[in-house]
Amino acid sequence: MSHSHHTINRFHWGAGKNYSLSLLLVEDKASDQQLISYYLKEVKTLSFNIHTATHLQAGLAILVQEKIDIVLLDLNLPDSNELATFDRIHETAPEIPIIIMTGADNEEYLALKAIERGAQDYLEKTSLSSTILNKAIQYALKRKEMVRGLERAQRLGKLGFWEVNPITMQW
Q1: Measured between alpha carbons, how far is 138 from 149 in angstroms, rounded to an integer?
Q2: Which residues contact 146 (CB under 8 A, 6 or more apart)?
Q3: pTM of this prediction exceeds 0.85
Q4: Angle CA(67)–CA(133)–CA(47) in degrees, nearest 5?
Q5: 153 confidence band (pLDDT: 50, 70, 90)
Q6: Beta partners for 24?
Q7: By C-alpha distance, which of 17, 19, 89, 12 is closest to 57?
Protein backbone atom coordinates (compact mmCIF):
# COMPACT_ATOMS: atom_id res chain seq x y z
CA MET A 1 0.00 0.00 0.00
CA SER A 2 1.32 3.37 -0.99
CA HIS A 3 0.35 6.68 0.52
CA SER A 4 2.18 9.86 -0.39
CA HIS A 5 1.61 13.60 -0.46
CA HIS A 6 2.68 16.16 -3.06
CA THR A 7 1.96 19.87 -3.12
CA ILE A 8 1.55 21.30 -6.58
CA ASN A 9 1.31 24.88 -7.99
CA ARG A 10 -0.72 27.64 -6.31
CA PHE A 11 -3.58 28.99 -8.38
CA HIS A 12 -6.39 31.49 -8.59
CA TRP A 13 -9.84 30.11 -9.28
CA GLY A 14 -12.82 32.39 -9.67
CA ALA A 15 -12.71 35.90 -8.23
CA GLY A 16 -9.03 35.94 -7.36
CA LYS A 17 -9.42 33.39 -4.57
CA ASN A 18 -6.56 31.03 -3.83
CA TYR A 19 -7.70 27.38 -3.60
CA SER A 20 -5.82 24.18 -2.96
CA LEU A 21 -7.72 20.95 -3.57
CA SER A 22 -7.07 17.76 -1.69
CA LEU A 23 -7.18 14.98 -4.29
CA LEU A 24 -7.19 11.23 -3.69
CA LEU A 25 -5.73 9.19 -6.56
CA VAL A 26 -6.55 5.49 -6.17
CA GLU A 27 -4.42 3.78 -8.81
CA ASP A 28 -2.33 0.61 -8.55
CA LYS A 29 -0.03 1.14 -11.55
CA ALA A 30 2.99 3.32 -10.73
CA SER A 31 3.31 4.46 -14.36
CA ASP A 32 -0.32 5.67 -14.40
CA GLN A 33 0.16 7.40 -11.02
CA GLN A 34 3.21 9.21 -12.42
CA LEU A 35 1.45 10.23 -15.64
CA ILE A 36 -1.64 11.54 -13.83
CA SER A 37 0.55 13.39 -11.30
CA TYR A 38 2.50 14.93 -14.19
CA TYR A 39 -0.73 16.18 -15.81
CA LEU A 40 -1.93 17.59 -12.49
CA LYS A 41 1.35 19.51 -12.15
CA GLU A 42 0.76 20.98 -15.61
CA VAL A 43 -2.64 22.42 -14.60
CA LYS A 44 -2.13 26.16 -14.15
CA THR A 45 -5.53 27.06 -12.66
CA LEU A 46 -5.67 24.58 -9.76
CA SER A 47 -3.38 23.55 -6.93
CA PHE A 48 -3.43 19.98 -5.62
CA ASN A 49 -2.42 18.19 -2.47
CA ILE A 50 -2.32 14.63 -3.84
CA HIS A 51 -2.87 11.55 -1.70
CA THR A 52 -2.18 8.27 -3.50
CA ALA A 53 -3.29 4.72 -2.73
CA THR A 54 -2.59 1.52 -4.67
CA HIS A 55 -5.29 -0.52 -2.90
CA LEU A 56 -8.94 0.14 -2.10
CA GLN A 57 -8.40 -0.36 1.65
CA ALA A 58 -5.67 2.30 1.69
CA GLY A 59 -7.91 4.68 -0.27
CA LEU A 60 -10.78 4.15 2.17
CA ALA A 61 -8.44 4.85 5.10
CA ILE A 62 -7.33 8.12 3.50
CA LEU A 63 -10.97 9.12 2.87
CA VAL A 64 -11.74 8.64 6.55
CA GLN A 65 -8.57 10.35 7.86
CA GLU A 66 -8.16 13.28 5.46
CA LYS A 67 -10.42 16.03 4.13
CA ILE A 68 -10.59 15.01 0.46
CA ASP A 69 -12.21 17.29 -2.15
CA ILE A 70 -12.21 14.92 -5.15
CA VAL A 71 -11.31 11.30 -6.00
CA LEU A 72 -9.71 9.94 -9.19
CA LEU A 73 -10.49 6.21 -9.12
CA ASP A 74 -9.23 3.21 -11.07
CA LEU A 75 -11.93 0.51 -10.85
CA ASN A 76 -9.57 -2.48 -11.00
CA LEU A 77 -7.27 -2.68 -7.99
CA PRO A 78 -5.41 -5.58 -6.34
CA ASP A 79 -8.02 -5.84 -3.57
CA SER A 80 -11.20 -4.82 -5.43
CA ASN A 81 -12.67 -4.99 -8.91
CA GLU A 82 -15.08 -3.10 -11.09
CA LEU A 83 -18.22 -1.53 -9.63
CA ALA A 84 -17.53 -2.90 -6.14
CA THR A 85 -14.54 -0.52 -6.06
CA PHE A 86 -16.71 2.49 -6.87
CA ASP A 87 -19.49 1.39 -4.52
CA ARG A 88 -17.14 1.15 -1.51
CA ILE A 89 -15.60 4.59 -2.14
CA HIS A 90 -19.01 6.18 -2.80
CA GLU A 91 -20.60 4.58 0.30
CA THR A 92 -17.73 5.83 2.45
CA ALA A 93 -17.87 9.41 1.14
CA PRO A 94 -21.06 10.06 -0.89
CA GLU A 95 -20.52 13.83 -0.71
CA ILE A 96 -17.18 13.71 -2.55
CA PRO A 97 -17.14 13.84 -6.37
CA ILE A 98 -15.55 10.78 -7.99
CA ILE A 99 -14.04 10.62 -11.47
CA ILE A 100 -13.49 7.11 -12.84
CA MET A 101 -10.18 6.52 -14.64
CA THR A 102 -10.51 3.80 -17.29
CA GLY A 103 -7.63 1.94 -18.87
CA ALA A 104 -9.20 -0.64 -21.17
CA ASP A 105 -11.94 -0.26 -23.78
CA ASN A 106 -14.18 -2.74 -21.96
CA GLU A 107 -14.10 -0.51 -18.85
CA GLU A 108 -16.23 2.18 -20.55
CA TYR A 109 -19.38 0.15 -19.84
CA LEU A 110 -18.41 -0.09 -16.15
CA ALA A 111 -17.60 3.63 -16.01
CA LEU A 112 -21.05 4.46 -17.40
CA LYS A 113 -22.63 2.16 -14.79
CA ALA A 114 -20.63 4.00 -12.10
CA ILE A 115 -22.02 7.32 -13.39
CA GLU A 116 -25.54 5.90 -13.04
CA ARG A 117 -24.62 5.10 -9.41
CA GLY A 118 -23.25 8.59 -8.66
CA ALA A 119 -19.80 9.07 -10.22
CA GLN A 120 -19.37 12.52 -11.74
CA ASP A 121 -17.40 11.56 -14.86
CA TYR A 122 -15.01 9.08 -16.41
CA LEU A 123 -11.78 9.64 -18.31
CA GLU A 124 -9.77 7.28 -20.47
CA LYS A 125 -6.17 7.20 -19.26
CA THR A 126 -4.91 6.90 -22.85
CA SER A 127 -6.65 10.18 -23.80
CA LEU A 128 -5.55 12.24 -20.79
CA SER A 129 -3.99 15.67 -20.89
CA SER A 130 -3.67 18.43 -18.31
CA THR A 131 -6.49 20.34 -20.06
CA ILE A 132 -8.89 17.37 -20.02
CA LEU A 133 -8.08 16.58 -16.38
CA ASN A 134 -8.49 20.23 -15.34
CA LYS A 135 -11.91 20.55 -17.02
CA ALA A 136 -13.15 17.22 -15.68
CA ILE A 137 -12.16 18.14 -12.10
CA GLN A 138 -13.69 21.62 -12.26
CA TYR A 139 -16.91 20.34 -13.87
CA ALA A 140 -17.20 17.49 -11.34
CA LEU A 141 -16.82 19.91 -8.44
CA LYS A 142 -19.40 22.30 -9.92
CA ARG A 143 -21.89 19.51 -10.66
CA LYS A 144 -21.56 18.17 -7.12
CA GLU A 145 -22.07 21.70 -5.75
CA MET A 146 -25.23 22.08 -7.89
CA VAL A 147 -26.58 18.73 -6.68
CA ARG A 148 -26.02 19.78 -3.07
CA GLY A 149 -27.93 23.02 -3.77
CA LEU A 150 -30.83 21.09 -5.30
CA GLU A 151 -30.90 18.72 -2.34
CA ARG A 152 -31.00 21.70 0.05
CA ALA A 153 -33.86 23.28 -1.94
CA GLN A 154 -35.71 19.97 -1.90
CA ARG A 155 -35.34 19.73 1.89
CA LEU A 156 -36.55 23.33 2.29
CA GLY A 157 -39.49 22.62 -0.02
CA LYS A 158 -40.54 19.76 2.20
CA LEU A 159 -41.05 22.26 5.04
CA GLY A 160 -44.19 23.43 3.21
CA PHE A 161 -46.82 21.20 1.62
CA TRP A 162 -45.02 17.96 2.24
CA GLU A 163 -45.51 18.23 5.98
CA VAL A 164 -49.28 17.80 5.55
CA ASN A 165 -50.58 14.32 6.37
CA PRO A 166 -52.13 13.20 3.02
CA ILE A 167 -54.79 11.11 4.78
CA THR A 168 -56.04 13.52 7.44
CA MET A 169 -54.90 16.71 5.65
CA GLN A 170 -53.63 17.87 9.05
CA TRP A 171 -50.32 19.64 9.65
Answers
A1: 17
A2: none
A3: no
A4: 45
A5: confident
A6: 51, 71
A7: 89
